[in-house]
Amino acid sequence: MAAWLERNVPKLVLAPSFVAVLVFVYGFIAWTAWVSMTRSRLLPKYEIEGFIQYDRLFAAPRWDTAINNLFVFGALFIAVSMLLGLLLAILLDQKIRAEGALRTIYLYPMALSMIVTGTAWKWIMNPGLGIEATVRGWGFEGFSFDWVIDPDMAIYAIVIAGVWQASGFVMALFLAGLRSVDEEIVKAARVDGIPTWRIYSAIIIPSMMPIFLSAFIVLAHLAIKSFDLVIALTGGGPGYATDLPATYMYAMAFSRGDLGQAASSAMVMMAVVFAIVVPYLYSELRAKRD
Amino acid sequence: MTDPARGLPAAPRAGQAALRWLLFAILGLFALFYLMPLFVMIATSLKSLEEIRAGSLVALPARVTFEAWGTAWSSACTGIQCEGLRPYFWNSVSLSVPAVAISTLLGAVNGYVIAQWRFRGANLIFSLMLFGCFIPFQVVLLPMARTLGFMGLTGSISGLVFVHVIYGIGFTTLFFRNYYVTIPVELVKAAKVDGAGFFRIFWSVFMPLSLPILMVTVIWQFTQIWNDFLFGVSFSQAGTQPVTVALNNIVNSTTGVKEYNVDMAAAIIAALPTLFVYAVAGKYFIRGLTAGSVKG
Q: How many domains does chain A have?
């Protein structure tokens, strides 16, 4: 008995976590998948009825808005954060004296809760008292900036706050990448008189492709899970103009009492995340084994 | 490739210096962009409501008052209760301390097993845990709400601790596994020859080597759990909400006059613990962020 224990102690130690992950991750996903195929409303029902919830979901105008918003927000948030992050990383890479301080300043928003970020930007973009009033006070009477209450523009207000929060993080990733490029190659190129911008565009940036991929994955993941930022900044409004799949799911689960819709929208979210993350993780894990 | 500039004299000093200045100007402007919201929050929190209504967003307070801070801490309304952020701040403290401690400890032991006591299937288990890190939590919200009900933990701090531990294990295991995998297996072998057992090796050999990764993991978990909103808003009830949920309730409560200075003071209070951690241990915070995305 003691010998058996001795031999199996590593497995026994790992077992509780393994069981927890099996039940609370994979088991729960299975439960949600199951309920998404039923007629559940306020309480779960367990008779499989097929894809009716998904039919309802894709027929719902509110879900349509949420998916469109996800694409608009996701595309802009990812593109602008990457461009800004790359620009800042390259500028910081020019042997800047105050690099440490600047890096700290660019990255601190990442330590904040999205609720704090949303609260701050909601106030800054407040039409009556925020930037709008300030710029008008400077003498530009016709200046108008009311994106947070404009149904067509509110999603862009969320992009601004999101980029503010995440771009410093992308900068840190890229800066680490720039620093890991082989110094010798860069030196050789300089000796050959190749202009700096060519060195970046032809040598350094192409060698950083894995980091672009990582940054993309992280940002895409953040975009799909974005919930707090929308809740704090616009509450999904005006109306449901800034709903994202995450806020739609939450509304169905906790205020509308429509479990079937909540489950099916959560499953669609997971499908989107997995479509992006699984190929990436798979290649990462394989690369490690080789 | 021939360079058209070769043979010409080096770029004139003045041009070089101007370029340098431009570089600093651009970097400085971006620094202002990132600092502006923090500045606006602090300045607004120190103004009176009259000054906020009359003045500009970016102006310094003409008369500094800490009244809004007092209100935000102890009497702002989060709905029908008007006790300020204080009780919720302590809720966040009392849920994040055990949740961080337990998930970090489990991650350390798991990482130690997966990296150093390899057995058949260990890699599969690791892969399953890793995939678990990436699920959108919406997909587990409904069954977790019911499970907490069965366990009698609905709306309790212990329930939130449980949830944060469960969904934190994946990342903490990843951190420790990637750290321990760089330690040669000969170390364990040698210790075994000396008669040390599984736990003895962990405590006396691995733990003393683990301070950096312990810092990274604790900071990562603390930031995640303190800043969490989704689990907090889904699984708490009046009285047990974490500080992020209370902050959102204060800001979006519709009763009475909108007190922007109180909102801003409350936002800063909710942000202070993670900002403090960032200020004193930023190095580890950044390492955690990058380890979470660039593995290996």
A: 1
Tell whether the model's pLDDT for residue B257 goes beyond 80: no
Instruction: Identify whether A7 is part of a domain.
Output: no
Q: What residue type is assigned to position B238 of the chain?
A: A
ipTM, two decimals, is 0.89
Question: Residue B62, class by beta-carbon neighbours within 10 Å (0-12 exposed, 13-18 middle, 19+ buried)?
Answer: exposed
- Would you say residue B5 lies in a domain? no
CB-CB under 8 Å, B251 with A27: no
Tokens of B167: 């969904």
Q: Do residues B57 and B203 both lie within one domain?
A: no
Domain that holds residue A228: 62-289
Residues in A touching B114 (Cβ below 8 Å): 14
Q: Rounded to a whole number, what is the distance in Å from the CA of B267 to chain A's nearest CA?
A: 5
User: What are the tens digits of pLDDT across the range B194-203?
Assistant: 888 889 999 9
- Sign of CA pseudo-dihedral A52, A58, A59, A65: positive
Indicate if B144 and B227 belong to the same structural domain: yes
Tens digits of residue pLDDT in A195-229: 888 888 888 888 888 888 888 888 988 888 789 99
Nearest-angstrom CA–CA distance, B294 and A215: 9
- How many Cβ atoms from other residues are within 10 Å of residue A203's Cβ? 16
Is B286 inside any structural domain? yes
The CATH number assigned to the domain holding B193 equals 1.10.3720.10
CATH code of the domain containing A90 = 1.10.3720.10
Shared domain check, B138 and B32:
no
The burial of B247, by beta-carbon neighbours within 10 Å (0-12 exposed, 13-18 middle, 19 or more buried), is given as buried
Verify that B189 and B239 share a domain, yes or no.
yes
Tell me what pLDDT residue B4 has: 42
Rounded distance between C-alpha atoms, residue B212 and residue B248, angstroms: 34
Same domain flag for B94 and B58: no
Output the six-digit token pair for B244: 């992020």
Q: Which residues pair with B155 in a beta bridge?
A: B236
Place of tokens 């800063």: B268
Kindly state whether residue B61 falls inside one of the protein's structural domains: yes
User: Residue A225: its pLDDT value, please?
Assistant: 77
Residues B134 and B224 occupy one common structural domain:
yes
Q: Would A196 be classed as within a structural domain? A: yes
For residue range B73-92, list pLDDT tens digits in order: 988 888 778 888 999 999 99
| Residue A126 maps to a domain | yes
The length of chain B, given as a count of residues: 296
The pLDDT > 70 percentage for chain A reads 98
Q: How many CB pairs under 8 A join A and B?
A: 265
A96–B292 CB contact, under 8 Å: no
Please give the DSSP secondary-structure letter assigned to residue B155: B
B229 and A231 within 8 Å at the Cβ level: the answer is yes
Q: Is residue A42 part of a domain?
A: no
CA dihedral A220, A222, A227, A228 (to 10 degrees): -150
Question: Three-state DSSP class for B192?
Answer: helix
Average pLDDT over residues B126-155: 90
**Do B53 and B194 fall into the same domain?**
no
Whether residues B144 and A28 touch (CB distance < 8 A) is answered with: yes
**Full domain range(s) for residue B40:** 13-65
Q: Which residues of A204-214 are buried (b: 16+ CB within 10 A; e: fewer)?
A: bbeebeebbeb
Mean local confidence (pLDDT), B39-48: 92
